[in-house]
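Risk register update: the risk of archive-format incompatibility is retired. Evidence:
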Amino acid sequence: MSKQQCGICGQWKEQHEMSKSYKHRCKECVARLTRIDRRAAKQRAEHIKEQLEGTGYGYITCQREDRLRVATAAMQGILSNERTMQAYIDMAQNHPYPKLFEIVARNAMGYADALLTKIDEKGGSND
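Archived output:
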């Protein structure tokens, strides 16, 4: 088996010890950097939450960002599926295309709201 040098720690490692996603990094370094990134992101989120506490701004902003992110993913799914798009076109056939866009956007927001409501009901647990 051939060995490869990790670009982070500099150690020579067997191929099975190297990351598949990051070709020049070993799995240990990728795992360590991922833990550091997650910890830093959590600290940033906590800091932002502390700064916005009492303003009423933080929750609404996060809620809107979550809603937009989920709706965007739903819209991508809708637009990438030919059968679904044909159904929307059939629904909007008596309307100009802006009506089609409105229907797709409204349904994407509906999917987002339903998913976020379900998550809120369960408190974010995977039960």
